[in-house]
Every structure is written in structure tokens, then in C-alpha cells.
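FORM 12-B: Structure-to-Sequence Request
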């Protein structure tokens, strides 16, 4: 999927993807929530993928595979249609 998105010029973060969930919770509840999700058969691969920290510029950033940081831009185009 990643290679196809790179080839076609799509941002993987904005592609519709069935059966995925992103949850935001208080830091002190994260481990309890993760354990509850992993206890369900459909949540066996649940993982903590990031954390929210205060940012005076109000940007959302992600750490790249190479250890750098990239800004996650607002969606500026229409999202691709979902074919279900």
C-alpha cells in the first residue's frame, strides 16, 4: 500500500482504510485501554503509536522512520472515494 501511494502521489494518512481505529485518551488511561482492546480478538494487534504533547505552534507532527519530524498537513483536497 505504501509503495502504491508513493507511486500515485497519494498521502497514506488520508486514504480510507476499513477496520482501523485511532483513539485519544488521557495518558494515565492508555495502558488500561490498550489491554482492554488487545483482549478482544479484533484488537489483538492494537498498539500505542504516538503521544500528544503541547505545541505552541499548534501543528501535528510525526516522527519519521529515520528519526526526523514531519508536519502532518490539513487535508487540502477531496478524500479518495471508498469502494466497499
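FORM 12-B RESPONSE
SEQUENCE OUT:
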Amino acid at each position: 500500500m505504501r509503495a502504491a501511494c508513493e507511486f500515485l502521489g497519494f498521502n497514506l494518512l488520508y486514504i480510507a482504510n476499513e477496520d482501523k481505529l485511532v483513539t485519544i485518551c488521557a495518558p494515565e488511561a492508555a495502558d488500561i485501554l490498550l489491554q482492554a482492546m488487545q483482549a478482544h480478538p479484533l484488537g489483538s494487534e492494537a498498539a500505542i503509536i504516538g503521544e500528544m504533547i503541547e505545541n505552541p505552534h499548534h501543528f501535528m507532527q510525526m516522527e519519521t522512520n529515520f528519526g526526523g519530524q514531519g508536519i502532518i498537513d490539513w487535508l487540502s483536497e477531496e478524500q479518495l472515494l471508498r469502494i466497499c
